[in-house]
Design a protein that fits this description.
- The protein is mostly helical.
- The chain has one domain (about 1-95).
- It contains 5 helices and no strands.
- It has helices spanning about 1-20, 45-50, 60-65, 70-80, 110-115.
């Protein structure tokens, strides 16, 4: 169990390092490896590809061992995954005091009158 958790953590750290190397700020990412603690729960989309799976199936060790050899390998591959969870969509929008950094500015009256979106109506 400890080996799998460590392997899972290293996999997560590897993905985070990849994203950092490709321009994602480090403070936006937290690697979390779970090992066998959080087996995959099957969503509807996977049931379309693997007809023998049902939505809500949990790929626990017990579930996997109940499958034939080919299905066991598929379940193990599905469990060896990296998932990303968006915790907030407001990253970088607020200063340290909680104020919006770049609030939208109301259009000036002359901007509204001239705002024709680049289209000209000809009759």
């Amino acid at each position: 169990a400890a080996y799998n958790k460590n392997l899972s953590q290293r996999r997560a750290e590897s993905m985070v390092n990849y994203l950092i190397a490709h321009g994602i700020p480090k403070d936006r990412l937290t690697p979390m490896g779970y090992g066998k603690e959080k087996p995959k729960t099957i969503r509807k989309k996977l049931t379309e590809k693997y007809k023998w799976l049902k939505e809500g199936d949990v790929l626990s060790e017990e579930f996997i061992k109940s499958r034939d050899e080919k299905e066991q390998e598929i379940c193990n591959q599905l469990n060896r995954r990296t998932e990303f969870i968006v915790l907030r969509t407001t990253y970088g929008m607020f200063d340290d005091k909680g104020n919006l950094k770049n609030p939208p500015q109301p259009k000036q009256k002359e901007d509204i009158e001239d705002d024709d979106d680049g289209f000209e109506i000809v009759f």
